[in-house]
Amino acid sequence: MKGRNERLVGIFIVIAGLVILLGQLGFFSFLGRNFWPLILIIPGIILHLLYFFRNTSAVILVPAGIMTVYGIFFLICSIWGWHLTASLWPVFIIGVALGMFEYALFEYPRPAVIYRTSIILLGVSIVLLFITMLTTGFIYVIAAILIFVGIWLIFGRPKPNRRRFR
What we know:
Helices cover 78% and strands 0% of the residues. The chain is an all-alpha fold. The chain is extended. The termini are far apart.
């Protein structure tokens, strides 16, 4: 019994030393700075799972959708920079629209007003997102995609064989 207790104390001391070492190296501050949006993403996913395993009503999908979208948005901004908020701000509207859309999609009978409102909000936010992207360097990506698609349509498509056997 004494040998087992010494091992447990030894394991505890090693773990404490590793936690202190990782803390001094900045590991936990790095996680806190960059991955705090998981505080929104994980509960959002859990709320989705609660609904899909039939433990709650469909109304839980509204905050689930909002939390998941906002968490992903904040994660992207914390990794690549908060300057992205200037052009990605319509994502806040998309979060609300997606939460309402999920609720309207899975609620029976389908609430038509909420369904239509979510579609309108989603459409408006996508248009706003596209407009804000046009004012940034994203316009060059769109131009490159259009040039590539045009060249593919001109030269890249295989020509159908028009000969027919009689």
